[in-house]
Specification:
By secondary structure, the chain is of the alpha+beta class. The protein has helices at residues 18-26, 51-54, 64-70, 81-98, 124-139, 151-161, 174-178, 191-199, 205-209, 213-220, 222-232, 262-282, 315-329, 360-377; strands at 10-15, 35-38, 46-49, 75-77, 102-106, 109-113, 143-148, 166-168, 249-259, 285-295, 301-312, 336-348. The strands form three sheets. Strands 5-6-1-7-8 form a five-stranded mixed beta sheet.
């Protein structure tokens, strides 16, 4: 029996008119109006434009004076970058609930490698729709998603999916998708290169793909010629690269009010261990090293870590480790401002693992059953009974 796979594992998720939509969250009176976010001064430019404004010709990076002339009645909102950063963290937290392989490009867009979800979703479209549904239900924001076999095709696809849609460039259809696109849509084709291509009678990506590589190199130079030849033929060997320090799967929470007491801390650790385990399994990963992070009201921060005998993706194992680390930390009754759990030493779950004595296989089977229920009914549909007892409030997740 063939191993399940997601044929188009690269997603590019792009939040639609992100700054404007965040402003509309806080001021519903802006909905339906031509709105831009940007500076109003003589040198002000448009940072983000609603689709109503775009319909009149307003674009990002346009001088604000031009935007005003282009769209009478334009509503101008000054930017609030702290607020956008806050919402961006929550968006990226949702991304990392699906996979730790997230490469952010800006506050409102990212590449995701979702091949590890092959046992939970039949194809890339269902993954894309699940991500969009989470963002819509939890943040009330629209997002567009492109999926493909490569990064640049996924990014191009998300552009065509806008606004608030999904476009899949299916495996095997890459060249057909590119055939009639203007060459200016390829990364690295600026005004100068476009002029050189035009002098060769090349206006579409399909035409470019059929030009012999030596001829392109002669006209465009060694590097540019080879680069565009690869892109025109749908070849992009880059992979999703999480930020350099993202060699772990983690969750951390800054509490609105400091908490204290071992039992209260353990309740929060149980939730965090469960969430980290869920993220590991969704990515097809396990880890051996568990670390605990604690920050006190004076901002002093301590960490404790231990390496388990074998890699795990089971919340029970992670929680027990966290409790041991909490005991080692000797917090006592001191109030805690921030609490975090991370798992490092990651490896594919399919890799051979040395099982510890006991009932680990039963716990792994239980985890698979819980995952299936969560995929069907939402991540919070099944939680440890202790978390249902009201001992701790749901955390605002800040990590990943």
């Amino acid at each position: 029996m063939d191993e399940p796979r997601i044929a188009e594992p690269i997603l590019h998720v792009d939040m639609d008119a992100f700054y404007v939509e965040v402003e509309r969250l806080d001021n519903p009176g802006l909905v339906g109006q031509p709105v831009v976010v940007g500076g109003e001064g003589p040198r002000g430019v448009v940072a983000s434009a609603s689709y109503e404004a775009r319909a009149t010709g307003v674009r990002s990076a346009m001088p604000m004076s031009t935007a005003r002339r282009t769209c009478p009645g334009l509503v101008i909102v000054p930017p609030r970058h702290l607020r956008y950063g806050e919402i961006s963290e929550r968006v990226f937290s949702i991304f990392r609930d699906f996979t730790p392989l997230v490469q952010g490009l800006s506050v409102d867009e990212a590449f995701l490698d979702v091949r590890g979800l092959r046992r939970h979703y039949p194809n890339s479209r269902t993954v894309a729709e699940a991500i969009r549904a989470r963002i819509r239900s939890e943040l009330l924001l629209p997002a567009s998603v492109g999926a493909a076999t490569s990064l640049y095709l996924a990014k191009m696809a998300s552009g065509y999916a806008k606004p608030d849609g999904v476009l899949i460039v299916t495996e095997g259809s890459e060249k057909a998708f590119l055939e009639h696109l203007d060459v200016r849509e390829l990364w690295g084709v600026g005004k100068s290169t476009r002029g050189k291509l035009a002098s060769m009678g090349i206006g579409t990506v399909g035409q470019l793909a059929r030009v012999p590589l030596p001829l392109l190199r002669r006209h465009l130079g060694e590097a540019t010629g080879a680069h565009l030849h690869r892109l025109a033929n749908g070849i992009d060997e880059r992979v999703v690269e999480p930020r350099s320090d993202a060699k772990s799967v983690s969750v951390e929470q800054t509490f609105e009010h400091d908490i204290s007491g071992t039992e209260a801390l353990r309740s929060h650790l149980l939730r965090q261990a469960d969430q980290v385990a869920w993220r590991l399994r969704r990515a097809g990963l396990s880890g051996r090293t568990v670390s605990l992070k604690l920050r006190f009201p004076d901002f002093r921060t301590i960490t404790r870590a231990e390496t388990l005998p074998s890699a795990t993706d089971v919340s029970r194992d992670l929680y027990r480790s966290c409790c041991r680390l909490l005991d080692r930390a000797g917090v006592g009754g001191r109030p805690v401002r921030l609490l975090g759990v991370a798992v490092r030493g990651l490896q594919p779950t399919e890799a051979p693992r040395q099982l510890m004595a006991g009932q680990e296989e039963r716990w792994e089977n239980l985890a698979e059953t819980v995952d299936d229920l969560r995929v069907r009914f939402g991540r919070h549909a099944v939680e440890p009974a202790r978390l249902r007892s009201g001992e701790s409030d749901p955390p605002h997740d800040e990590g990943g």
